[in-house]
Amino acid sequence: MAPFIALTGGFVVLRLLGLAGVDLLDGWQPALRGALALMFVVTGVPHFLPSWRRDFVAMIPAVFPRPALLVTVTGALELAGAVGLLLPPTAPYAAVGLALLMAAMFPANVSAARRGLTLAGKPVTPLPARTALQVLFIAAAVAAAV
């Protein structure tokens, strides 16, 4: 739920700042890009925290080799994408890359939900809700790209 809160709350706050006169945030797309960047910091940092990292590694379906490396790579890509979203020349490319990354990582979320895994001691989001959130997150990234 934290990614959803970061995305929606971040968007509202950044959009309000734009409406209040912060030129850099004057428009829905800069606010959306900032909110997505916040969301990807919230989701990327835990890839490198030991207690979360173990849970992320457990989420990787067995068919994929070197799950710890995949967790490191996906975390780094999320953080790099967050930075890319904040730089106007790279923002559209970062948004597209992050949309593709989210689609590629979705099988791990499906696997985790089906196996009843936990993240930081809490059950993962049930599959129907996770699917709806994934669609929302990918749609937000696509909107940030165009």
Describe the structure in your own words:
With 146 residues, the protein is mainly α. The chain has one domain. Helices cover 75% and strands 3% of the residues. It has helices at residues 2-19, 28-44, 50-59, 67-86, 91-115, 127-145; strands at residues 118-119, 122-123. The longest helix has 25 residues, at 91-115. The model has no long low-confidence stretch (mean pLDDT 96).
Quickly count the helices: 6
- Strand tally, please? 2
> Which ranges are low-confidence, i.e. pLDDT below 50, for 5 or more consecutive residues?
none
Distance between the termini: 26 Å
Write down the domain tally: 1
The largest sheet has its strands arranged as 1-2
Which descriptor suits the 3D outline? elongated
Query: Biggest sheet, open or closed, and with what strands and sense?
Result: 2 strands, antiparallel
Radius of gyration computed on alpha carbons: 15 Å
Order of helices and strands: HHHHHEEH
- What structural category do the secondary elements indicate? mainly alpha
Into which percent range does the helicity of residues fall?
over 70%
Strand content bin: under 5%
Mean pLDDT: 96
